[in-house]
Amino acid sequence: xxxxxxxPRHKITKRGQNVTFRCDPIxxxxxxxxxxxTLGQGPEFLTYFQNEAQLxxxxxxxxxxxxxxxxxxxxxxxxxxTEQGDSAMYLCASSLAGGARGQPxxxxxxxxxxxx
Amino acid sequence: xxxxxxxxxxxxxxxxxxLTINCTYTATGYPSLFWYVQYPGEGLQLLLxxxxxxxxxxxxxxxxxYRKETTSFHLEKGSVQVSDSAVYFCALVGVGGTSYGxxxxxxxxxLTVHP
Lengths: 116, 115
Fold this sequence. Notes:
The complex is a heterodimer of chains A (116) and B (115).
Chain A: E1 5-7, E2 10-13, E3 19-24, E4 31-37, E5 44-50, E6 53-57, E7 65-68, E8 75-79, E9 88-95, E10 106-107, E11 111-115
Parallel strand pairs in A: 2-11
Antiparallel strand pairs in A: 1-3, 3-8, 4-5, 4-9, 5-6, 7-8, 9-10, 9-11
Chain B: E1 3-6, E2 11-14, E3 19-21, E4 23-26, E5 32-38, E6 44-50, E7 56-59, E8 62-65, E9 75-77, E10 86-93, E11 103-105, E12 109-114
Parallel strand pairs in B: 2-12
Antiparallel strand pairs in B: 1-4, 3-9, 5-6, 5-10, 7-8, 8-9, 10-11, 10-12
């Protein structure tokens, strides 16, 4: 169990550029979640995958955001035409499926996005 | 919708002091409740959990009891250490519907422990 891995750890970009983050979940986990955390706040849910299917998207996820999990393993989160308000820590978590309440989620160290 | 409210922070304590961080929630039905901890520069780690009323979660000397009547899940530790300095998040997972296990977090409480 190598844990959830996120890359890059830190991304600095100019406003208007596109960025892509990657998340590698724990290998046997079929659920994968993306959260966004701004300074001084708790993480907020963005989207969720079970295997390769994206089953839920938060209203926080504007049309500029897209997430994929093409083979049910790693996932990517892309932000197009970045804005100042996109500056945040983007967290990925994974878990096993099962149970009405879900299984404990394991988090990566996050990707910190800074928009200049 | 679901929501979690944590006590205002930050909290500053001396080593070996008693810790309480208050957490209350709003949710339909019987959510599962969690405390996560975030050390500087790291991701969130699950500290403890409780899945039904009156359950007590415990880990590393921390405890929290699921109180349905007061919709609370306060975190306590009898004697804190400098190494406990971190940000603590209370969170819940709703039951059924389209929850799919997604977490709803409180705003976090910064704990600083001085020697």
